[in-house]
Design brief:
about 300 residues, mainly alpha
Amino acid sequence: MKKAFIQLHIAVLLAGFTGILGRLISLNEGMIVWYRLLITSVTMWILFSALKKIQPIPLRDIAKIAAVGFIAAMHWVTFYGSIKYANVSVALVCFSAVGFFTAVFEPIIFRKKFNTAEIILGLMTLAGIYLIFHFDSQYKTGIIIGLISAVLGALFPIFNRQFLQYINVETLLSWQQTGGLITFSVLLPFYLQRFPVESFFPGAEDLMWLLVLSWLCSVIAFQFSSNALKRLSAFTVNLSYNLEPVYGVLLAFAVFKENKLLSKWFYIGFSIIAAAIIIHALLLAKQERKPLDNAVHA
């Protein structure tokens, strides 16, 4: 149990580290995502095929997964774009709005009742982002792109939940990364025409960070979180992933000293978001205790 808990938090920390890598890599956001998809998809096919984890699935499902892979790819493009136009801290604060958009989209897609508490907490998060947006005008473009990233980041896990009912996670991720690579490759020439780059190929330092991003923050982080999920409750996993923006912001403070660049309104807005995360954690804890209480009184 202790090993699984450590693996889970390493996975969350690695997820928060992706923002740092987005700033360290000098390539533009489109090229970062393209190389990440290329390296990750090739690695997953080799690794999961060797482990015999890839299952055959119909072409119709492959096409659907590829479409979701494109949504995931555009989520990363806008996430790294938010970093380039603002900074790591602002991009991760915007990422915390994923909870609000999930609370809105999931009931609509699955035709179920809205969770009022999640909507309210999501609105708290948006209020915190608005304070930063309103008073730190230099970050407005980055915040708008970051919120688009949050919308896309809320959508593809919702669709993945449907696929995981009959497709194992290794098959899903391998095809999703590949589908994202193929569909984004079609878009990439038009993207680069609009946002040109000096060089298509990464230098030695960029390549090193791209390998870290693909192998550590994608493949290994997935393995750790999957192993943890087998041994820990869904409550523990959900609660831990709420810490991803917090870990990422603290890393940005430590690595890039971004705390010296941010105004008091960032901290006020971030405090509201942190309060929403804490309240959500308490609600999850209460929800987790209910089955235990019912079992005791049964």
